Amino acid sequence: MNDKHYKGHIAMLMANIIWGLNSPIGKAVLDSPYVTPLSLTTFRMVGAAIAFWAASLFTKKEHVKPEDLFMLFFAALFGIVLNQGSFIFGLSLTSPIDASIVCTTTPIVTMIVAAIYLKEPVTGKKVLGIFIGAMGALILILSSQSAATGKSGSVWGDLLCLTAQISFAIYLTVFRNLITKYSAITIMKWMFIYASMCFIPFSYRDVASIEFAHISTEVYAGIAFVVLGATFLAYLLVMVGQKNLRPTLVSMYNYVQPIVASAIAVAMGMDTFGWSKAGAIILVFTGVYIVTQSKSKAQLDALKIKATDQAAPGTHK
What we know:
Number of strands: 0
Helix content: over 70%
Order of helices and strands: HHHHHHHHHHHHHH
Shape: globular
Structural class: mainly alpha
Number of helices: 14
Radius of gyration: 21 Å
Strand content: under 5%
């Protein structure tokens, strides 16, 4: 594993730790009577757009080709608007447990999309790693089910959550080559401005009705974390992961989020840490490791060329 791969792994681990922390913090914000899911998502998109454009003032300016600007709109549509929008609406209709379980499909969907679009091989190691990681994530999620409260599952809610995972899988694979052409700041500033333009028409009434003077300092701090931590910083880290790791491997780190959520529950005295959770965590990271050992299309092509050269010595100079 080279330095680029290490950089990608660290970035994805940190991003998913932040997203794991975002679940309880975001829920605390939404418990406020003044902040709705639509308004919080709007804060994420608009706030991140402002942060990325501000950050671009201190980085080297890049000229983005008109055709790439056009494609970045669709990248924003799949990677941000459909992903975040579908998940929020789905979560409002179904139970948190159902939503978490549906999220474990992300690596599976990503592997399928990568196989179709990027012609990435569906190897035995890759399938085994995803299966083992999913089992670990499901054990963590289901072990916390007894503490879960709220509404029961809904087919439509589950389908919307699945739509969110499919849209993110498409973003990770279809737009990978576009993402690698420009810096993370350049890509993100355009994606989030496009996402804001798409989302504001549906959410401006929720935002306009907020009584900002009545929002507590704690809720404002939570919103700041959601915008600057779980959106600005996390998406920057995902960009680093996308540039250095294969799409399926990037999506495998989705299984880290239940570990973080479980750790928070234990720390707050809402759950206990036992052998089942320890085993589940081991399964998650074992699954990630197995996927890292699977061969990419480029590696398999290189092995075929090497085998051909060895089978026919003297034919190449």
